Amino acid sequence: MRAVALAALSAVARVPGFLIPVLVAATYGAGPHTDAYFVAYGAALLAAGTLAQSVEVAIVPFAARAILTRGAAARGFFDRSAGALTATSALLWLAVVPVVTLATTAGLRGDVLRYAASFTPLVLLWCGSAVYAGGHVSQSRIATATGSTLWRGAGGLAALAVLPAGTGLWAVGLGLGLGELCRVLWLRRRMWTLTPLGGWGGEGARVADGPNSSLARATAAVMFGSSMGTAAPVLEKLMAVSLAAGAASHLEYAYRLLAIPAVLFDGALAPMLLARWSQAVAATGRPPAAPELWRAVGKGLGLAGAIGLTTALLAPGLVHVLLLHGRFRPEDAATVSGVLQGLSIGFVATMATLLLERFYIAAARTGTIATYSSLRAAVRVLVALVLLRRLGILAFVIGYAVAEWGYLAALTARARPALSATPAPAAPVPGSPETA
Q1: pLDDT > 70? residue 211
Q2: In-domain check, residue 112
Q3: Contact 124, 116 (CB under 8 A)
Q4: If you average pLDDT over residues 373-380, what whole number do you get?
Q5: What is the sign of the dihedral through the CA atoms of 223, 226, 232 and 237?
Q6: Domain of 39?
Q7: In this structure, is residue 429 part of a structural domain?
Q8: pLDDT given for residue 208 in this prediction
Q9: Please, are residues 264 and 47 in contact by the beta-carbon 8 Å criterion?
Q10: Alpha carbons 19 and 183: distance in angstroms, whole number
Q11: What is the model's pLDDT at position 422?
Q12: Please, are residues 249 and 398 in contact by the beta-carbon 8 Å criterion?
């Protein structure tokens, strides 16, 4: 029941963010301006979203350990980590924007740059939010972390509602940034009001006050894997703009609709497993046993299969109800429906790997994720590139399915030796009950 409640909360928190592309479709349809907007948004996801999502996951085991052992010193760990990662996202943004702009068609470059400028506040603030959200997850306060995304979406939705339609899509980017500012301030405040900072370590714990090298390595590994997963959709959109006008928008709309059934996994099941396994590793130094891991992944795979089949069957009706308004045409709806049905096949594997990845993160084996994620992204893009001329937009559907199922098979095979080679229990912390 807790998973259902968390999924419902996560879904409610994401409603504003989900409504934004729906309203964009109704107001602007699918064409060059929306293509440029989604390319710029993809660049923001690549630079900041990838890093932030990686941090929010990778920091959980370290946050659990920090709060358990450091007491009030954990404040410095979180604040300094947020500052360092914000600076990193700024550097990544400066590197990504020129590359993405030059990679798109000449007619869209001006719009891409303008939209990218509007996304800059969001890019700079996203990582700070991720640090504190990960801290909440480490204490099993998943509702606080997942519910906080309401701030970001509400900001973008407010910009669409307050500003006139002729203002342009750049207002949405600024609204998302304002919402993210509210989110990071709220999460930080909740962190210190809810977290018991009188832990074993207290002020006298012999620990560093900022992000350590282990966290940096774990974040880098998860980020590399996530960046490969985020880079693939960006490359897909760049390839899609070579097709008919609106193809990149059709692809984006389908991916956004697929996020609806995914909320049960990334908003509830995955963070619940990561919190449970990270707390266990922090206390005992050992990852979950094989029966627990395979039971969780197996149930997740079965649930994802049922959801994927339902999504494929309901795709035409879903697109009709949510997107077929305003300037969004029936032929646009038909294309998005077909893409969504095809993506449902790869969706099943994606959700199963989302759960399996939490084992690797809790067990500090993030290098495996980085390696196999790069292969997954390469397969996804190469398959689409080979089939693009022959199949058009359906090439992206096939590439996604092949890559996701291959990734699941690789992680499953690699988990078996990892389970038999568990690390020794961590040394007790001075002053803890273990040494009392």
Answers
A1: no
A2: yes
A3: no
A4: 92
A5: negative
A6: 2-204+212-420
A7: no
A8: 36
A9: no
A10: 19
A11: 47
A12: no
Report which of 187, 199, 222 is spatially closest to residue 366, judged by C-alpha positions.
222
Query: To which residue do tokens 């928190």 refer?
Result: 13
| Residue range 43-53, pLDDT digits in tens | 888 788 878 88
CA atoms within 13 A on the CB side of 292: 12
Q: How far apart are CA 150 and CA 183, in angstroms?
A: 8
The letter for the amino acid at 269 is L
For the chain, the distance separating the N- and C-terminal CA atoms, rounded to the nearest angstrom, is 38
Q: Which residues of 97-114 are buried (b: 16+ CB within 10 A; e: fewer)?
A: beebbebbeeebbebbeb
Give the C-alpha separation, 128 to 211, whole Å.
13
Q: What is the pTM of this model?
A: 0.69
Does any domain span residue 433?
no
Q: What is the pLDDT of residue 26?
A: 72
Number of neighbouring beta carbons within 10 Å of residue 207: 18
Question: How many folded domains does the chain comprise?
Answer: 1
Helix (H) or strand (E) holding 233: helix 213-240
Residue 379 has pLDDT above 90, yes or no: yes
Q: Is residue 430 part of a domain?
A: no
